[in-house]
Amino acid sequence: MSDPIDEIIRRAMANGEFDNLPNQGKKLNLDEYFEMPEDVRAGYTILKNANFIPTEVELLKEIAALEENLLTTQAGQQEKIRKEIQEKRLKYNLLLESGKKRRR
């Protein structure tokens, strides 16, 4: 009996779902990852496996979605969206700044 995951991967390969991926055929640069202390890497791995998304990443996704939305929004609603973008950028910058201070 074959592993169900292997079967899913084989099917995806047969359907060409792995063709033309970004960076296809290029080596992964893992230097930065392995330069981190082992306990930090373990923490990141646990969070990633638990599908945890850092607040900073979530804010960037929200900003990108709002900017995309801005392109198709009527003029009357654009100012509201711009204000939301500005607030999320401020929150993002504050999170980055507080992270820098904690690392010092």
Give the SSE layout.
Blueprint: H1 4-14, H2 31-35, H3 38-49, H4 55-71, H5 75-103
Describe what this molecule looks like in 3D.
The chain is an all-alpha fold. The chain has a domain at 54-104. The protein is 71% helix and 0% strand. It contains five helices and no strands. The N and C termini lie far apart (53 Å).
Helix/strand-derived category reads mainly alpha
Radius of gyration: 20 Å
Order of helices and strands: HHHHH
Mean pLDDT: 86
- End-to-end separation in angstroms reads 53 Å
Tell me the helix content. Answer: over 70%
Contiguous helical run count: 5
How much of the polypeptide forms β-strand, as a percent range?
A: under 5%
Query: Uncertain runs with pLDDT below 50, 5 residues or more?
Result: none
Shape: flat
For the biggest sheet, the summary is: none
Please provide the count of β strands. Answer: 0
